[in-house]
Specification:
alpha/beta
Length: about 210
Amino acid sequence: MDLLVLAKEPIPGRVKTRLGPTCSPAEAAALAEASLADTLANAVRTGADRVVLVLDGRPGVWCPSGVVVIPQVGGSLAERLAAAWSDIDGPALQMGMDTPQADPVTLDRAMSVIDTTGGSVIGLADDGGWWAVGMHRPDPDAILGIPTSRADTGDRQLRRLRHRGHTVDLLPSARDVDTWADAIAVAASVPGSAFAAAVAAVAGRRS
């Protein structure tokens, strides 16, 4: 099974802009890089056959060896998410770079559900979106056209999967990192991580 991570290269001004004004563009990019590094480190420690980074930009030192990197197809976020599934010919779990607390055990359990049931999974995010979607049968049209960054995005995605005939199991919900309050909360849940260290560095400069 493939584990897909959709991400942007952590360039100041292009990532995590909602962390302002607490974070400068450079600080927001540092937090994004730490979150992505932790996410990929967790991903490569799972039992996935491949970890595929679907990247807008170029890989950096934060990308572990062995990760397959493919470019994102341009367009809306929903179009980029759907396009990533077009490159997959078997079961997969898809996630973003905003949940560094999703550890290998959590990800392996999600993939095990897909394997065991032959169906799909979704992990809803606390802000109304979703942090992971997995399908035994890749179906890009199950993703395409779902409005993103809305309070009902996750519910819409769940309904679309079911409407297209997917049997869906719910994963544990998670808080993704959009705002500074999110960053503080998520960092507290993963002490010792690169993300927690990056948040502590910004907080230290603000104190």
